[in-house]
Write a structure and sequence with these properties.
The chain contains no helices and six strands. It is mainly beta. The protein has one domain. The strands form two sheets. A four-stranded antiparallel β-sheet has the order 1-2-5-4, with no helix packed on it. Strands 3-6 form a two-stranded antiparallel sheet.
Length: 89
């Protein structure tokens, strides 16, 4: 689970979360936990109140890094809290 500011609340197989700019998060995994769209189902759950409606997209999953982009209801990049899970197919 990742807070809107990029801090990790619950950390299982996550080395760090980089938050380079508003609405972009890069979740770094251990090298032995490589994730790819072709081999994994990646689930993303946004967390917040109805007033904080956010959408999120996994834009890249290559090797030991997963990139997530989050947006507000108008489609503008916005910070958000979320949970991420990757499961091998």
């Amino acid at each position: 689970m990742v807070n809107a500011n990029g801090s990790v609340v619950r950390k299982q197989n996550v080395l760090a979360v980089d938050h380079p700019q508003q609405g972009i998060y890069r979740v770094r995994l251990p090298a032995e936990r490589a994730v790819r769209f072709e081999t994994h189902h990646i689930g993303l759950t946004m967390i917040g109140t109805p007033e904080q409606l956010r959408t999120g997209h996994v834009t890249e999953a290559a090797g030991s890094s997963i990139e997530i982009r989050t947006f507000n209801r108008e489609g503008v990049a916005a910070d958000a809290s979320f949970m991420l899970a990757a499961e091998r197919l």
